[in-house]
Design brief:
By secondary structure, the chain is an alpha/beta fold. Helices cover about 35% and strands about 20% of the residues. The protein has a single domain (about 5-55, about 70-195, about 220-300), classed as Aldolase class I (TIM Barrel, Alpha-Beta Barrel), CATH 3.20.20.70. It contains nine helices and 16 strands. The protein binds 3,4-dihydroxybenzoic acid.
Length: about 300
């Protein structure tokens, strides 16, 4: 047992570090590279029933402090990721299958295929994609969230997780948690997706920097770390029976440690992984291990939720 080993949904992860869905996970080549780099877990690209080309380019731009994207769910279709997950389900690297059907019926069809395949890979159901024109982020409509979870859990009898958007008001944390806590099958919450519909402007060209949606897109990277930590901690406090997966603003071992303090069991990396590639994951693991040693911790589990208030 190394200091970084941790248990999630009953499986051992060698480290708490995963990719964020969307980054380095669209093809088998990319997914295999994450496994080869020693990722503590791998999340597949959010998938739809049919393959999609996504939005027109440019659709991802890195900035000094992070990134903006409006990819529009380019993916190979759910069967591709189901096949990859099935081939790796018994390997040493735990996998999460990210699912982002365009309708509830699509999500039910994909989940039915997961059950039919007998796949022992948890689903991260993405209810927070901000980038499909005309489709609002479902998890901002708590009645729609409730109805979707009722429909899903009426058929899907396996523990699963939700990829949530950031919430920005304590009342919204309370209201969202109240809905989520009525569904014990919702075993984990991944907080957060990008901050939706930001706008990056290039002052020299006096232009937006991505083509879709007049330049509006999801914001990641340094911009979002405090929002991510707030959402991790808010749901850790309010949903004691669920595990929290932290995502947002991580590019150093200290950032990982902050997510653990806030209550994360696992931590995902998006913008920084896009910038540095899979070699980021062993670097973060080394930085986290050194920080734990310096602080006298022997396991990541001791850190989880230890955040002090004043
Ligand atoms: C995309 C972006 C997201 O933030 C997400 O959750 C799913 C898909 C995308 O644009 O492809």
């Amino acid at each position: 047992m190394t200091a970084l080993t941790t248990s999630f949904l009953g499986r051992q992860h060698a480290t708490p570090l995963l990719n964020a869905s969307g980054v380095w996970c669209s093809t088998a080549t990319e997914l295999d590279a994450l496994v080869a780099a020693g990722a503590g877990g791998v999340v597949t690209k959010s998938c739809t029933l049919a393959p999609r080309a996504g939005n027109p380019e440019p659709r991802y731009v890195a900035t000094r402090l992070g990134s903006i994207n409006s990819m529009g769910l380019p993916n190979e279709g759910f069967a591709y990721y189901l096949d990859w997950a099935a081939a790796h389900a018994d390997g040493p690297t735990p996998i999460l299958l990210s699912v982002a059907g365009l309708t509830v019926a699509d999500n039910l069809a994909i989940l039915a295929a997961v059950r039919a395949a007998g796949l022992r890979v948890p689903v991260e159901l993405n209810l927070s994609c901000p980038n499909v024109p005309g489709k609002p982020q479902l998890a901002y409509d708590l009645d729609a969230l409730d109805a979707t979870l009722a429909a899903v859990t009426a058929e899907h009898d396996l523990p699963f997780g939700l990829k949530l958007p950031p919430y920005f008001d304590l009342v919204h944390f309370d209201e969202a948690a109240a809905v989520l806590n009525t569904y014990p099958l919702v075993a984990f919450l991944t907080c957060i997706n990008s901050i939706g519909n930001g706008l990056v402007i290039d002052v020299e060209t006096e232009s937006v920097v991505i083509r879709p949606k007049d330049g509006f897109g999801g914001i990641g990277g340094d911009y979002v770390l405090p929002t991510a930590l707030a959402n991790v901690n808010a749901f850790h406090r309010r949903c004691p029976d669920k595990q929290i997966v932290g995502c947002g603003g991580v590019s150093t071992g200290e950032h990982v440690f902050a997510h653990l303090l806030a209550g994360a069991s696992l931590v995902q990396v998006g913008t920084a992984l896009h910038r540095e590639g899979p070699g980021l994951l062993p670097r973060l693991a080394d930085e986290l291990a050194a920080l734990l040693r310096r602080k006298g911790y022997t396991t990541v589990d001791e850190v989880r939720g230890r955040l002090r208030t004043l």
